[in-house]
Amino acid sequence: METLSFEFPAGQPPRGRALVGCVGSGDLEVLIEPGPAGTLSISVQTSVNGSGQRWRHLFARMFDGTVPPAMNIEIHDFGATPGVVRLRLEQGFEEIGHD
């Protein structure tokens, strides 16, 4: 198990919270909560050691050219593919009302 932390610039916090997915074979759980203005913090607990660069690239692509809301995102990964990660994050953003 490895725990990774990432921070990105952000705008104002959203009003809502979201919990999407579940930890299981090839899936992951994402918890999204409002965070302090100006900061998007992401914590990833993953079963795949040495995957920090893959996660960093995924987040950089998702937030490139946008100003996401200030959130604390907690991800519990069980070896999910990048496509599943993005899907779960987008589901969470939709639930809190962020496109």
UniProtKB/TrEMBL annotation:
* InterPro entries hit by this protein: Mal_deCO2ase/Cit_lyase_ACP, Malonate_deCO2ase_dsu
Q: Where in the cell is it found?
A: Cytoplasm
Q: Does the keyword Phosphoprotein apply?
A: yes
**What keywords sit in the KW lines?**
Cytoplasm, Phosphoprotein
One Pfam family here: ACP
Carries keyword Nucleotidyltransferase?
A: no
* Top-level taxon of origin: Bacteria
Q: Which residues form a coiled coil?
A: none
Specify the protein name.
Malonate decarboxylase acyl carrier protein
Specify the species: Pseudomonas ekonensis
